[in-house]
Amino acid sequence: MHVLFCPKKIKPVPEFFPCSYGLQEQTIGKGVLVANRLSGETSPYLRQHSDNPVDWYPWCPEAFEKARREEKPVLLSIGYAACHWCHVMAHESFENPSVANVMNEFFVNIKVDREERPDLDQIYQMAHTMITRRNGGWPLTMFLTPSQIPFAGGTYFPAQPRFGLPGFVQVLEQIRDFYREHKDDLEKTDHPILQYLNQTNPSISGREADLDLTPVEGLLGSLKARFDTEYGGFGNAPKFPHAMDISFLLRRYQRQGDQSAFQMASLTLHRMKGGGIWDHVGGGFARYSVDDRWLIPHFEKMLYDNALLLETLSLSGRASGDLRFEKTAEDLVGWLFREMRSDGGVFYSSLDADSEGEAGRFYVFQKDEVRKILTDGEFRVASEYYGLTGPPNFEDHAWHLYEAKPVGELSRQFGLSETEIEARLQSSRKKLFEWRSSRVRPGLDDKVLASWNALMIRSLLLSGRMFERQEWIAAGRQALDFVRSRMWKDGKLMAVWSDRPLPAYLDDYAFLLWALLESVRVDFRLEDLDFAI
Fold first, then answer.
1. Mean pLDDT value across residues 492-510
2. Which Pfam families does the record associate with it (predicted)?
């Protein structure tokens, strides 16, 4: 563990709400714990922790006042509802009374939903990088002074030592001892972390900058250098979609006819659609792939990923005329409307990776299970198409479906037309979907975020315009009208739709304006122009 001293002069981050509501008493061990402070929160992620034996606070002034009064460090845990390793740490440590007793005795414990408070997440992710010299992630585990200054941290810690990591109780005891010994120094001593945070958040000067294409050419060169020419995407595993990079390449092709840019984007989208990062039964893209071939995903599905990827599918379909892009977009929107859309027309945030305590349990199959569901003819085709003829590809005991052979090859193999092969696959998907629907479903984070909804609104409007799908445009407009009527209050945008307003951030405003401009382009409405202005 790397520990750095931090100066007192770092400006505390904003505090919005008191947290002394909804308190209940739980008996933990021999004592009585005031618990369930999180039960009154609007965030599903925070509510998931409302019955932990940990004495959690949301981010609020009361927590830091308690830390100052009792001269304790603050344990800040940041995560989100669909995060698999957040669940693992919760099950191993936060639901464990013996671990919770240590946390409660020596720390003031704060839980934050990174989707509700991206500002806090950004600040402490940067601090984590400075302190540990490693990339951050979730769950983020940071230790702060009562003045909100970070002095140590990490991400996931196992309850017992493993993976080359110390056990969480061991970490807590080391931090407790370190804080007691260096408490005064932590509040007084200057350290480069202040300069680091200031450098990564530079002030805006009034000097005009010269604009040229140097950054554009630099980005293109970087993407070409990192491009995987066999499987698409950029860099090594774990491999993320990088939808914004794909959109950049497609717009480069549109404006300058750069064939290499289009080929990188097209190969990436086709490989992703053929891989297991795409849900071949229910539609929608998972957050990332754990391998470089896009085969096994980290199974959570995020609204923002699918919004940005819907745009790339639309741009690719328009640029190439390849109907496969439109079909994938259609299946993505079908999943969106079926599983992520509220009664009011806005969209929820994410689907969990886990169900019944296991990542991917909802999505993977047993071969005998598939054979039971399908007819013999369907199974012969589906088993070849989805890779069931090989060994299990998910944790050595199950199969996660992906496109192992293209339809054309199956047509030659079985002596059937491609239309007949497609018909068998379509019938198989329908039966597998119905079978899978009877399983325990992954958790839904029904939080409605302005920024992510704005991204999806824009993508629905854009894809509806490009593919001439009026129902997609209508859905985008319905969600846009919801945001305007329910999330715009007293001339200000709310970041989250809830009973307790949370002021919006810059990206909320920027993405909403982006969506409004697309709405005006699709079909002019004066109210959209007025709202944008």
1. 92
2. Thioredox_DsbH
Phi-psi region of 35 (alpha: psi -120 to 50; beta: other; left: phi over 0): beta
Q: What angle do CA 350, 356, 361 make, to 5 degrees?
A: 75
Confirm whether pTM is higher than 0.85: yes
| Confidence (pLDDT) at 223 | 97
Phi and psi at 184, nearest 5°, equal -65, -40
**How much is the CA Rg of the chain, to the nearest whole Å?**
25
SS3 call for 505 = coil
The pLDDT of 258-276, averaged and rounded, is 98
d(CA 477, CA 515): 10
Polymer length of the chain: 533
Q: Which CATH architecture has domain 24-200?
A: 3-Layer(aba) Sandwich (3.40)
Q: What is the pLDDT of residue 9?
A: 37
222-236 burial, b at 16+ Cβ within 10 Å, e below that, comes to: ebeeebbeebbbbee
Q: Which residues contact 63 (CB under 8 A, 6 or more apart)?
A: 19, 57, 74, 108, 110
pLDDT band at 210 (very low <50, low <70, confident <90, very high): confident
The answer on pLDDT for 440 being more than 60 is yes
Amino acid at 58: P
Cis peptide before 139 (omega within 30 of 0): yes
Whether residue 220 contacts residue 262, with contact meaning beta carbons closer than 8 Å, is answered with no
Kindly state the average pLDDT of the residues 510-521: 97
User: Which residues of the chain are in CATH 3.40.30.10 domains?
Assistant: 24-200
Report yes or no: 347 and 341 within 8 Å, Cβ to Cβ: yes
Q: What is the pLDDT, as a whole number, of residue 40?
A: 87
Listed residue (307, 207, 140) closest to 131, CA to CA:
140
- Read off the pLDDT of residues 311-351 as tens digits, 9 standing for 90 and up: 999 999 999 999 999 999 999 999 999 999 999 999 999 99
How far is it, in rounded angstroms, from Cα 234 to Cα 418? Answer: 32
Amino acid, single-letter form, for residue 48: Q
- Cβ atoms of 32 and 55 closer than 8 Å: no
